[in-house]
Amino acid sequence: MDSHPSPLRDEPLGWTFFRQWLKSPLSIAAISPSSRQLARQMVAELPVDARRVIELGGGTGVITQALLDHGIAADQLLVLELNPELHDHLRRRFPQVAVACADACDLPEVARRAGLLADGPADAVVSGLGMLSMPRATQRRILQAAFDVLRPDGRFIQFTYGPAGPVAGEVVADLGLVARRGNLAWWNIPPATVYVYTRRTDRSPA
Ligand SMILES: C[S@@+](CC[C@H](N)C(=O)[O-])C[C@H]1O[C@@H](n2cnc3c(N)ncnc32)[C@H](O)[C@@H]1O
C-alpha cells in the first residue's frame, strides 16, 4: 500500500509546476520549469571534480535529473524544496536521492542532518530559487548558508531571468564573493542567464 497518495503523480511536469505557481507565485517565481538546455548549462558550471552537490529549490526535478545525468551519484546529492507538494513529487521521482522539505536558509543544519557533510564540505550548490524576487536580507541568509557548507573554492551556481546578476551587489560585496556571468539559455521561457559565485581571493579580478 502506498502511504503517500499524491495528486501530482501522473500529471505532466509543466502542469504540476504551474498549479503550484497559481497557489504561491512569489515563492515558485516562474510559471514553468527550467528547460533542459538551462539545466545542462547550470550543471556545466560544476567544478570538474565535483562529487558532493546540493540543489536548492528542486521544483519538478529538471536540474536534479541533469545533475544525475552528469554523473553526480545519487547518494552525494541533497535537494531542498520548500513546497510540500513539490517535495512529495521529487521524493517519488528520485527515491534514491535525499530530498528535504526545508528552507534554503537552514541549509547547514539540513545538510548535517542528512549526513552529506560527514566526509567534507560540498563542492557546489546549484540554485533554482527565485533569487531576484527575494529581499536582500533573504538573499544574504541563503548565500551565507550556502558558503557555510561549501569548500573554500566551492561554487554557488544560480540562474536569472533578469539582465543583471540575481544577487544584489551589496550582498556579494559584504560576503566577500565574486560573480561571473555564464551562458545564456535562449530556449528557456523566458531566456535565462547562469551566474557563478565564488569566494573572493587575491587572484580574483577586480
Ligand atoms: C523558479 S522555481 C525552480 C524550480 C526548478 N529548480 C527548475 O529550475 O525548474 C523555484 C523553486 O524553489 C522553491 N523554493 C522557493 N523558496 C525556497 C526556499 N526558501 N527554500 C527551498 N526551496 C524554495 C520553490 O518552491 C520552487 O520549486
UniProtKB/TrEMBL annotation:
Keyword Transmembrane annotated: no
Residue span, Methyltransferase domain: 53-154
Keyword Transferase: yes
Pfam families, A to Z: Methyltransf_25 (PF13649)
A GO BP annotation: methylation
One annotated GO molecular function: methyltransferase activity
Record key words, sorted: Methyltransferase, Transferase
Highest taxon in the source lineage: Bacteria
InterPro entries for this protein: Methyltransf_25, SAM-dependent_MTases_sf
Name under which the protein is recorded: Phospholipid N-methyltransferase
The organism's taxonomic lineage, starting at the top: Bacteria, Pseudomonadati, Pseudomonadota, Gammaproteobacteria, Lysobacterales
